[in-house]
Design a protein that fits this description.
The chain is mainly alpha-helical. 53% of the residues lie in helices and 6% in strands. α1 runs antiparallel to α2. The longest helix is centred in the last third of the chain and has 22 residues. It is globular, with a radius of gyration of 13 Å. One of its GO terms (biological process) is negative regulation of DNA-templated transcription.
């Protein structure tokens, strides 16, 4: 059984808590392409998730993405692209840096 803790945000975005129960490693750097795709599908970006698969974005690539990469490189509509970067990519990057700095 998949355990996903979802919380609606004011802007309509959905936050997803990562854990071993949802089938992905806890550290995004260890995610395969399908882990990234499934993360965004679970977060409510079903249509946009395929762009990550088409561009072969795995966890390491996801953590290296800039705002410009998300807004232009994935060829997504601006609204969803902004939400994906601000509410998902950026927090994942910050969490990863925090967890891996001594």
């Amino acid at each position: 059984m998949l355990s996903v803790d979802m919380e609606n945000k004011e802007n309509g975005s959905v936050g997803v808590k990562n854990s071993v129960e949802n089938g992905r490693p806890p550290d995004p750097a260890d995610w395969a392409v399908m882990d990234v795709v499934n993360y965004f599908r679970t977060a409510g970006f079903e249509e946009q998730a395929s762009a990550f698969q088409e561009q072969e974005i795995d966890g390491k690539s996801l953590l290296l993405m800039t705002r410009n990469d998300v807004l232009t490189g994935l060829q997504l509509k601006l609204g969803p692209a902004l939400k994906i970067y601000e509410y998902h990519v950026k927090p994942l990057q910050s969490k990863h840096l925090k967890n891996n700095s001594s």
